[in-house]
Amino acid sequence: MSTTVLHKAVTRGHADLGWLSSHQSFSFAGYYNPERIQFGVLRVLNDDVVAGGKGFGSHPHDNMEIISIPLEGSLVHEDNMGHRQVVSAGEIQVMSTGSGVFHSEYNNSPEAPAKFLQIWLFPNRLNVTPRYDQVKLDPAKEENALEQLISPVKGGEGTWLYQDAWFYKGRFDEGRAVDYGRKRKENGVYFFVVKGSFMVSGERLESRDGLGITDLDTIGLSSLEEGSEILIMDVPMQNKIQ
User: Fold this and answer.
1) Does 32 reside within a domain?
2) Domain CATH for 152
3) 108, 77 in Cβ contact below 8 A?
4) Following CA atoms 156, 86, 107, 133 in sequence, which dihedral angle do they give, to the nearest 10 degrees?
5) What is the reported pTM?
6) 131-141 pLDDT, tens per residue?
7) Is residue 241 domain-resident?
8) Which range of residues forms the domain containing residue 135?
9) 38, 72, 102, 199: most buried by Cβ count inside 10 Å?
């Protein structure tokens, strides 16, 4: 397996359903690329735009960790666990689907589009009791730094899930640099540029480009534009079910 994988934004899959425009970094639904099934336990990374008043009707999931990160606007989430929540830009939502859950997500605005990242990870525990969590992020922690969004630790910073995975997000001034330290040698690190551009380990990444690295403990990144934003996903390359 290559130690580095580069996914340029223009090479992603794309589905246009009218009410939904979805760009897919990995094979999903009608998009299939045998070389882009997953990055370790990272199975889905969809960059979705949902039209005003539209959304995903109730549908089932099981044994998947599902993360939603709104970028613009907000979504209404409902599930058969009794939750009805509005999740907005500046928040993050995690759902452990475990033994099975039905849920729906709709744009909370009747007119303005909602933009969000939909991310799926394979869990390291199967058939757990389904759970839902939602946390508000701190914009100050993302200024020229990396804010932890997700970890395996219950009660830690951000929220948690059933996997040895860590997510971070940061927003940087032009020319600012930071080193990222991989959490576990068994993990790979996937960088996804939300906005602007970065140099990551010598590779120039533009908006919505993705880069996966599996052989470095410390990875340097630097912002090439004012206000550039990046999402980092530190995930096991081989899943070990507990």
Assistant:
1) yes
2) 2.60.120.10
3) no
4) 30
5) 0.97
6) 999 999 999 99
7) no
8) 4-236
9) 38
